[in-house]
Amino acid sequence: MNLKDLASLLGLSPTTVSRALNGYPEVSEQTRLRVFEAAAQHGYVPDPRARSLATGRAKAVGLVIPVDSRHERVNPVFGDFVAGASDTLWARGYDIMLTLTSEANEANSYRMLAARGRVDGLVIQAPLIHDWRIGVLRELGLPYVVHGRFSDEDQTYSWVDMDNRRAFRRATEHLLNLGHTRIALLNGIRGMDFAERRADGFLQALRARGLEPPPEYLCNSRMTETYGYDAATSLLRSEMPPSALLTSSVIVAMGARRAIETQGLRMGRDVSVITHDDVLTYLLNDGTPPVFTAIRSPVRDAAELAIENLLTLIEDPSAGPIQTLLEAELVPGGSSGPAPTNPPHGRTRDAYQI
Amino acid sequence: MNLKDLASLLGLSPTTVSRALNGYPEVSEQTRLRVFEAAAQHGYVPDPRARSLATGRAKAVGLVIPVDSRHERVNPVFGDFVAGASDTLWARGYDIMLTLTSEANEANSYRMLAARGRVDGLVIQAPLIHDWRIGVLRELGLPYVVHGRFSDEDQTYSWVDMDNRRAFRRATEHLLNLGHTRIALLNGIRGMDFAERRADGFLQALRARGLEPPPEYLCNSRMTETYGYDAATSLLRSEMPPSALLTSSVIVAMGARRAIETQGLRMGRDVSVITHDDVLTYLLNDGTPPVFTAIRSPVRDAAELAIENLLTLIEDPSAGPIQTLLEAELVPGGSSGPAPTNPPHGRTRDAYQI
DNA sequence: GACGCCATTCAAAGCGCTTTGGGAAAGCGA
DNA sequence: TCGCTTTCCCAAAGCGCTTTGAATGGCGTC
Fold this sequence. Notes:
2 copies of one chain form a homodimer. In chain A, helix 5 (78-91) crosses helix 12 (299-315) and helix 8 runs parallel beside helix 9 (193-208).
């Protein structure tokens, strides 16, 4: 059943039927009603391809998510991002097209290029420090919004990001105020933009108090439970065990908690943990109080804003770059407390100094 | 730059250029080369909409993922499923279109219907026991493959699923063989097809040995860490604490582990845990031996097969329903061991009987 | 009665591609 | 030279929709 069939069925021209369905005023209310009824009755749905070809609008946005080619790991934030984006998109009649790109190889430029015509705009996820995608984006000439930021990019472009630097600075200050001086950072992998900003914030806060962490206090890895466990274990067993850990995701914090408890210590008393929390639905840190003290910044909120901004750009490309900085909320939980006066393991050591 | 432009640029007709690019034999090798060069040079990429309209093939598949409307939870398996599907799809030139559907409301039928024309086939995720989507699917007339199964569906349709019943029967038998008789199941929510099958397998194995678990040994909930912790805690504190737990996902197992350790018990010695493991990249249960004894069935494998089957069906709709049953692998890990002779907590109790 | 005006409706072109059905040129055997 | 096949290329139709520009008819007005 296509437009022509429906039209001849109604004894109308395709023009009129199209107009009736699309809400143009040049059609009588009575006719419009007839058309709608017939459409519903025969289950007529306009072909999106044809419509898109005729209007030039694809009514779809593309989501470009990077896949870590070595580990075949897909960005864990992805699922919730989609969930956050989906409501708004659906409400505005947009579909979502997925493009997975692994690290730089030529096919990927093509893969992104192929999006042209199929989508009206793009959302870019998990930008790297030096992200190859930016070149393709510029060439494409499609509106796009980056979830996160390209660090080495000086030109203005649209992004939605949380203030990673500030969040980690505040979390670190929070721990400092609790008396902690030996604070380690279990960060994400190097090369991810957000990881660098977090490290920045962490260091800023420490240095403001005249502290400089030893290099082994700065860990970088893919964010897994095992990583959290291993890193925390080796830190806690080291010569100079930290009294607090700052982790980059709830899953890493879980690993850290396991390490702490395995060593017979108690989280929140012997060792404090503050984690960043993207509020992923499969890893909720809820409860009252939540298990982990956290700097919380829901991915869903970011997703909604990113989509909102993207749609604005699509509808008015001259709307100029839209940049949205989100604040993280410091949520007190059970995992942090005052620095213990006697360091664990019976060892006594001074705080590290400059 | 469109086909016509490129053609006139080359002094050829659009027909010839199209044929050259699509590998038809009626064009000289020399011309083909010229065309390819010009296309590359001018960055010409055929418009997928126009192509799709002309050929009738969308060169895209739809992924329909349910969103739990109450909890706004997106299926955690989703990310890895996409990752598994993406390689094959990309290799065959297909794009992925996402459709999120929350629980039954009329808009969703439409949402799926709108897919017509935009995709050549669908993959359905996380089927429920009584899934409203099946009606829409039949009406649509598009090829589809279900990841999982519709339990109440007697008509033949295509699916890829792991043998949940057998996997959980084997895991239970494994525990029984280790001497455990008090085994609790921390299952997913009721209404999900897989959860019912798992409970089935679990009960089959127990009943074959003349055991009948008390009702409180059968837990159902959304699979979160907190759930694992709470359920395990209350079970271990109960009058009749289990000596083994069977969990439906690694994240639940993590919660269970925390509960076990919080009570001063050791996992694998005092309480055994076997978990199902979908091998999600953000929740890896690796290591040698792995932390958890697991019945492992990678979502990625399922995804690859589902896509493979779907593409077969798309290319030959008469290929009939393709049904693929995957076996889970029982991977020994550190979380299971012989049943303790003295139950924990100093309590002595007989195994539950029929 | 002629005119203009509004409210409706329609015919036809066009979006960018594929594909059918030729058709010209070249090659070949007789 | 002719007729035939083969090779290579092309014009034009069509996919299902939107949209421009024009047509139709009813109505009030002078």
